[in-house]
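re: that chain from earlier
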Amino acid sequence: MTTMRRWEIDAIGREHLRLRDVPVPVPGPREVLVRVAAVGLNYRDKMVIESGRGLPLRFPFTPGSDLAGEIVELGEESSRFARGDRVISTATPDWIDGLRPGTARTPAYRTLGGHYPGVLAEYLVMSEDWLVLAPASLDDRQACTLPIAGLTAWFGLVERAGVRAGDTVLIPSTGGVALFGLQIAKAHGAEVIVCGRAENEERARQLGADQFIDAGRDDWMEQVYQVTGDRGADVVLEVIGGAHLGQSVELTAVGGKVCQIGALDGFNFTAPAMPLMLKDVTIHGIGTGSRSALERLVRAVDRTGIKPVIDSCYPLSELPAALDHLDRGPFGKVVITVAA
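^ sequence. v structure.
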């Protein structure tokens, strides 16, 4: 195999997406060649293609950050993996452990499919430090959903908010991060309230939601107060952002925590000051997580039986249709299958 297919854009905009034949790369020192099996799409990928998100894209640019695949060749001095190992990517590869890199002036945002080239290709050469072993309990289509959606939910709920048995967790969505959050919270013994579209209630309850509230109701916040006996939620997985952060603050229990993750409603967040201060609410800003945290999530997945929720799968050639599906709001993850 000397050539492969890879998605590229030469300028910002979905109309510039092209599936091209390019040479299969060769790994250098401490690099590995990965045969990509599946790629998990994120709303962020769509935003990067359509707007660039202010990132320093180098054209031709390949989008995507979340892969599952198999190591087929090792570069010199590579020692972390062996040929045949199943692996998944780390979306923020420079963040190995501890606090995220960066400074007060310049927070770090060096991700795959952004600062670094992305993964929507049949083969990739990557630093061996940018990968972790895939969960043994998941197939490739499931495993490729962990690097951003799974890790973001895990890092927020477990590593920052410290969710535990007896907590009440509010999740105002049924997207990829949200459904991981639902399963992770339940695995830790929490009660989970999901707010979403009415047609998703049955599937959310099948995944373990204790309460489901129709987000289309004008009084959905009142419903949260009622089902918690006015106590509110100990942890809110805030995946919408914008003014919705303020609603999450109002619904948080005294001493509770908000994990601010998403920006679907905009990047300028607002929240009322009085409930934030009087209830001693902590807001955690969450931007994926470290490689070590991803390894802990992999172990948790294998031990607890968490199964990613996949809405639909598309072949590599149908990336534009998969992006259209993201626009419609999937229940769970949209996946691109690359290798059979």
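The first strand starts at residue 3 and ends at 9.
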